[in-house]
Amino acid sequence: MRLMSALLAVGYAITVSSAFAADPVRIGVTTILSGPNADRGQSEQYGVELALQRINESGGVLGRPVEAFYADNAADPAAGIAAAKQLIEQQRVSVLLGALVTPVTRAVMPVANAAKVPLVIDISAGQEFVDAAGSGGYDYVFKTSPSDGDVATAMMQWLKTRNVQRIVILTDDNDFNRANATAMEAAATAANIRTLSSEIVAKGTTNLAPALERLTALHPDRIVTLLSVSSAAFFRAYEQSGEGIPLAGRIDFASAIANLSPQFMAAGGLDQAAGISVFTPSVPTPAVQAFMTSYRAKYGLAPTQRSIFAFEATQLVVDAIRRAKSDDPAAVQQALRSTQMPSMLGGTFAMDEHNHSHTAMQIVGIRGSKLAVLDQVGK
């Protein structure tokens, strides 16, 4: 009996070793790996590698290990095109993930589509990518994370349930925030919410009191903020104004806590604020908390939304390869179109006619001095 057990164990080890001696299934990733924003690409890479660790520890796919091949796009469209071509033509990858920033993703889409290699846009948020994919003409392009339009629609529909009828919008002057402001205004109109004013903060502005005074004079039900570099100045002006009009939008709560006084917070000055988040560590589900624990254990860092989007996108493409029983790009494309993989964040990765899946987002706010999930939307 002991001899038989030993032989079976040796046979199993040989089988596993033989499988993992085979050529790997190849996934290409083009992201930012150099320059001032390399940390963003690193968080995407970390998400991919954590997913692959789990996948390969569970036997890989098609009896083979899965390996990611990376090509730096340096946040530059020309470099992104070269990176995509390198991964497709030299590394012969079955699928691409990328390309993190809007201009590079825009440049890479036609390259992947012409080569008939699936491109899974796991992070770039632009609604333009949704519109262009699938029935928009790019059959080999897929988008898995929420778009600007998804975020805006979910936010405005939630505000509508709170009887919000009039909003103002305040946004920083950059591509990401301006796109979000445009999406919020369109979603507000669709929800029969009136946008009284949409104001852009000029670059270099350090005093937001005048802008806030103009907006509050319109007596909106909510101030929708879409701020990044101006967040600190806004919250200081917000406390000083004493108006107390509730906030909504993509609120930087970390900046709020850092810049609002303890007295203001203790008095409930931010208790009515409700922002929308595509990922927050406060999501209480076991799957998200297990991901958080594994990520911290592996990297000594807290994950970003880029990390979890890349993690799930990697799982999604491997699931497609498994169901296709092939790593041929055309077979993977067909399998991606029929995917039904649950998301850790809620909802299911199920592609619509634009090859875009709609997963859950969170309405978040400060409760008891901590960031808390107030509601789940968008799934």
Automatic annotation (TrEMBL):
SUPFAM superfamilies: Periplasmic binding protein-like I. Residues 1-21 form the signal peptide. It comes from the Bacteria. Residues 24-367 form the Leucine-binding protein domain. Keywords: Amino-acid transport, Signal, Transport. InterPro entries: BCAA_transport (IPR051010), Leu-bd (IPR028081), Leu_Ile_Val-bd (IPR000709), Peripla_BP_I (IPR028082). One of its GO terms (biological process) is amino acid transport. The keyword Signal applies. Belongs to the leucine-binding protein family. PANTHER family: LEUCINE-SPECIFIC-BINDING PROTEIN, PERIPLASMIC BINDING PROTEIN OF ABC TRANSPORTER FOR NATURAL AMINO ACIDS. This is Leucine-binding protein domain-containing protein. It comes from Caballeronia mineralivorans PML1(12).
